Every structure is written in C-alpha cells, then in structure tokens.
# Entry
Amino acid sequence: FLYGGQQRNGQDASVTLAPSNKETYMRAGIRFPLSFMGPERFDASIAMEEAKKAEVELSTESSRATMQLNAAYTNYSSLRKQFTQMHTFLNQAERFLPALDQALMGRRISYFEFWGEHERYHALFQRSLDVRLAAARALSELEMLTGKTLE
# Structure
C-alpha cells in the first residue's frame, strides 16, 4: 500500500489567526495475507503430522491385530489337538468298561478298584468336554477376529 496527505500541526481550532504549520507525509507498506503470518500457516504441517501419527497408529493397530489373531489361532489349534488326543483315548477306554464290569462281577477286582477306574474315566470324559467347550470359545474368538464363519 502507498498513500500520502497533509496534516496541520499545533492547532486544534478550525478558525485560526496565524498561519498553521502544514506537514506533508507519505506512507508506504506491504500487506501480507493473514495466513502468511497467522496460525493458518501451520495448517499444512499440522495436517502432515496428523497423517504421520495416523500412519503410526494404523501400523501399531495392524500389528496388534495380527499378533492377537496369531495367538487366537495358536490357542485354538492347541485345544483342538488336545481334544482330539483325549477323544481317541476315551474311545480306547470305552472298550475296557465292559471288561471292568465283568471283572467286578467275577470278583477279580474290588468295588473300590472298579469305582476308582470308573471315576477316572468320567473325570477324563468331563475334562474332554471342558476342552471341547474351550476350543469352541477359541473358535468363536477366531471367527470374531476374522469376520468369517470357520469350520
């Protein structure tokens, strides 16, 4: 900007008897937009920093989700393997239950021995059901993490 003008010095009254001192002046300056010096000039750098922060958060969340998915799959596969082994063992043990009954009837074993073996079988059966339930929970967690229906 550039402008100028005249100004009277020393007299405030509009009607005077003495000649007044006149001063001629000229002013020059440069105007900058507010965004050049104001807080708006940082908008681009703030946006860049927010984008970098979002990228870091995304990579952190992605790696956390991957680790959580791997842990859930490891847990499920371990429980499934454990249930398969227990189920195989229970199928083998079921073949011996009639022989156990016959041994009790033939008085080759005592009732306490019979009852102890029977209790061991039922405890193993209950444990296999608990493992199967835990495997079902692990599978549902895996399904929630993947968003797909599995098996």
